[in-house]
Amino acid sequence: MRADRLLSIMLLLQVYRKMTAHELARRLEVSERTIHRDMEALSISGIPVVAERGTGGGWSLLEEYRTNLTGLTEPEIQSLFLAQPSHLLNDLGLHKASEAALIKLLAVLPAIQRRDAEYVSQRIHIDASGWHNREEAIPALPFLQQALWQGCKICFTYLRGDNCVERLADPLGLVAKGNTWYFVAAIDEQIRSYRVSRIQSVQLLEQVAVRPPDFDLAAFWAQSSKNFTSTLRCYHSSVRVAPEALPRVYGSSRLFRIEQTEIVDTQGWTTLHLRFDNDSEACAFILSFGAQVEVLEPVALKQQIIELAETVLAHYKQ
Fold it and tell me: Which terms in the Gene Ontology molecular function aspect does this entry carry (predicted)?
């Protein structure tokens, strides 16, 4: 395991030229103390690793040093040949390039590893899209991608409600969430994200974009997603579900989240703890099951369902 990590450190330094112990520790999921021990081991073995201290410092290899020890393990080869989300590669114009790269890699693999790669690609397929995702028009995506590659500022217009607003931005990245693309940019010294399908026009400027030196796109998106999730409204309820209704409830779980499932009672009914966005959605969903779903908590929801049912009954008795 340590030999694999030492090789990984060498390859990371060869690719990124310079990395701090903290960055290496995060990438390799070890402590910074372990990284320092590994650097000492590499130095003793004759690998020219150099430490530069102070602001902007880090570990690096002497510039002329290169290694060809890039042998792939069997799991690494399998991961490369798992089906990629082709619709996202198509959006970026990279689908054909991805296929060509895999063909070239396949051609240079030894026969036994080539068989392993073909074996896994025929037995595991990954479809990253959901059943209910809607296709969105994203004409702005190629221009945003071009701005990112060129490192230039952009001026874009964005549809907010019924109004179109204009923004001057430093492009930082693109993120695909399911089938939906988001554009991440620095605007007025704040980092924000915009749904690409709502961007109406993009103008590339001659000014060079300013990218924060410590910006990490994946880390930003993870924190942004966490912040967004924490602001979502939620409404908790507990229900008993008849055995014949249980498959339909599970099949509709995109409308809510099942937070806990309890043991089936003597009548065969299952108790579920559900989380909806609000009480109205909970009421409408539970009422659609008639007597096959019974509300246990909260009492207010049970009363709300009774009142709604009485209203429906009164309407049809007219």
Answer: DNA binding; DNA-binding transcription factor activity
| Count of beta carbons in the 10 Å neighbourhood of residue 307 | 11
* Residue with tokens 């498959």, as numbered in its chain: 247
Q: List per-block mean pLDDT (blocks of 10 residues) for the chain, which spans 318 residues.
A: 78 83 89 91 87 85 68 70 70 76 70 72 69 75 94 94 91 89 92 94 95 90 85 83 87 74 80 86 87 90 88 84
Q: CA 155 to CA 206: how far, in whole Å?
A: 11
Same-domain check for residues 209 and 240: no
158 and 209 fall within a common domain: yes
DSSP 267: T
The strand ranges marked E within the chain are 18-19, 49-52, 58-61, 152-160, 163-177, 180-187, 190-195, 199-208, 235-241, 257-261, 270-276, 293-297
Q: How many CB atoms within 10 Å of residue 221?
A: 16
Q: φ and ψ at 193, to 5 degrees?
A: -125, 145
Alpha-carbon distances of 315 from 281, 287, 290, 301, rounded to whole Å: 21, 16, 17, 21
How many beta carbons lie within 10 A of that of residue 115, not counting itself?
11
Distance from C-alpha of 318 to C-alpha of 304, rounded to nearest angstrom: 22
CATH of the domain at 158: 2.30.30.520
* Position 68 in a domain: no
